[in-house]
Structures are given as structure tokens and as C-alpha cells.
Write a structure and sequence with these properties.
Length: 296
């Protein structure tokens, strides 16, 4: 008998099981493994949190990296204190300033002569109820997290196509797969990224360009400290779940292993990642659960 609150088991029929097995086998045979050695990476949102953790992982392994954010002074400090400062270039990127992103892309390419991988990590979060959130905050979240990321990626796309190689890694969120309280427009901006980059992947799969979507769960960063409240101010508080989350070092290790394995999408975190399966297979149960979940 199934225990109360336990996720119901799911079983494929014999035919469905054979089909799934064959599909997985075909996928593994056709997936193209990516070797990170000699690749040049560009990371946005690199001055703290996940972006900084990804940079540290690459720099410690002697991989050339362009780091970007709005805070150039902070980026310069990170560069100079790194293990291999000679392998680091700094380019200012403000994702809200759309008209500056073509220039930023050109500077990034000039840094080492080419770019092989763009990690779209820059963005801002949100911690307030829909009823308390101004439209201006909704708009800012969409501008930074979605439109700024799209604009920057489109600025680099022709470079990838011309070189017949390139990878977009876009860091979204588990709330890009399902919504939770206090993150309505943040969730919407992350859902939008999935729609855009899934479509882009389908368009460029035969042009040497790859797309990987990464959905973090609770990662131990300062994202909640800088999250916007309904009026636009910074929350200035650390979420308990965030404080107890996965370290950025472990997150970085998992992300780059997935990249090298040729994964197209990966969820990284703790038990919260099970929410994706619950949403898919038991949506009514999940809806009731998420409404009561402690998410801040």
C-alpha cells in the first residue's frame, strides 16, 4: 500500500519501455562530447555567486575566460586575485542597456580572438507576492533576465555560425520549469528563456551551434540578498533554503560534467529538483504541495 504523501510509482508497459530504451541508446550514440580544453568561455554575472564559482572552476584549470557584469572594479579584483590572471579578460555588460550589448560582444571577441562558449548567467531575482509587485519590477525582471540575455546571445550568434561552432549555456532556474510563490515574474522570465533557447537549438543544430539549459535549485549564493521586493528595493535577507543549498563549487563541477557529456538540459540541486517530475506526472498533487512549500 502506498504511504500517505508518497509519490505514486510509474511503470511503463513493455512496448513503451522498449521504445524509451531505444531512444536513450540512439541519443547516447549521437551525442557529441565537448572537450573544454582550449575552449574560450564568456561568463555574464561573473562578479558573485554562480558566475564567480564557474569562473573559479575554469581559471583553476587554466582555461581562458572573459568575465562580465556591471561592476568592472569587482571583476578586476577577481582577475588579479585569480590563479591565472593572464587568462582572464574583463568586459562590462549591463543587460538592461540593450544598445550597448553589440559593442560589449565585439570587445569580448577581441579579447582572445574568438569565443567558444557563452554562459548566460547574469540576472536578478524576486521575493514578493504578485499583489504587492509593481509592474515596473515585473518589467525590469523581464528586461534583465530575458530580453538582455536574448539580445546578448543574438549579438554572438553570427560569430558562432561563422565559425561553425559555439555553445550557449543559459542558467535558468527550477522555477523556469514550474512556478512558486514570491517569484512570479522571475519565474516568467526563466520560462521565457526555455522557450527561446529550445527554439534556437532546433534552428541551429545543423550549424555546429549547441544549446544547453541549466536549472539550478537552491544554490548557496547571495541571490536572495539582491532579490527585488515588490517596490523594487533589494530584499537584503538570506533565504533559509538558499543558505542551506548546494555549494557553488559542487554546482560548477556538475555543470561542466554535463557540458562535457553533451547534455542539452540539466537540473542541479537537492531534493527540490524532484519538483520537475512531480509537476509532470502528478500536477494536482504538486500544485497543492507548492502552495504550502517554504520557499523563502
Amino acid at each position: 500500500m502506498q504511504a500517505q504523501g508518497q509519490v505514486p510509482p510509474f511503470a511503463f508497459g513493455e512496448l513503451e519501455g522498449i521504445l524509451v530504451s531505444n531512444l536513450l541508446t540512439a541519443y547516447e550514440k549521437n551525442v557529441q562530447i565537448i572537450n573544454m580544453k582550449n575552449q574560450i568561455f564568456w561568463i555574464t554575472g561573473a562578479s558573485s555567486g554562480i558566475g564567480l564559482g564557474l569562473f573559479n572552476h575554469l581559471n583553476e584549470r587554466g582555461i581562458k575566460t572573459i568575465i562580465s557584469s556591471r561592476d568592472v572594479a569587482k571583476l578586476e579584483e577577481i582577475k588579479q586575485s585569480s590563479k591565472h590572471p593572464e587568462l582572464v579578460a574583463v568586459v562590462k555588460v549591463d543587460l538592461e542597456k540593450f544598445d550597448e550589448l553589440d559593442t560589449a560582444t565585439a570587445k569580448a571577441i577581441e579579447s582572445f580572438g574568438k569565443i567558444d562558449v557563452l554562459i548566460n548567467n547574469g540576472g536578478i531575482s524576486q521575493r514578493d507576492l504578485v499583489v504587492n509587485t509593481s509592474f515596473e519590477v515585473d518589467q525590469r525582471l523581464i528586461n534583465v533576465n530575458y530580453l538582455g540575455t536574448v539580445k546578448l546571445s543574438k549579438s554572438l550568434l553570427k560569430h558562432f555560425i561563422q565559425n561553425k561552432t559555439g555553445t550557449f549555456i543559459t542558467v535558468t532556474s527550477l522555477v523556469g520549469k514550474f512556478g512558486t510563490p514570491y517569484r512570479s515574474s522571475y519565474s516568467a522570465s526563466k520560462h521565457a528563456l526555455h522557450g527561446f533557447f529550445d527554439s534556437l537549438r532546433a534552428e541551429v543544430k545543423d550549424l555546429g551551434v549547441k544549446v544547453m539549459l541549466v536549472c539550478p535549485g537552491f544554490i548557496k549564493t547571495n541571490i536572495s540578498l539582491n532579490a527585488l521586493t515588490g517596490g523594487g528595493a533589494k530584499l537584503g535577507e538570506m533565504d533559509e533554503a538558499q543558505a542551506n543549498g548546494m555549494s557553488v563549487e559542487v554546482f560548477a563541477e556538475k555543470l561542466f560534467k554535463a557540458l562535457e557529456a553533451g547534455k542539452e538540459e540539466i537540473c542541479i540541486g537537492g531534493k527540490e529538483t524532484l519538483g520537475v517530475l512531480l509537476k509532470r506526472f502528478v500536477p494536482t498533487y504538486f500544485s497543492k504541495m507548492i502552495a504550502k512549500a517554504k520557499v523563502r
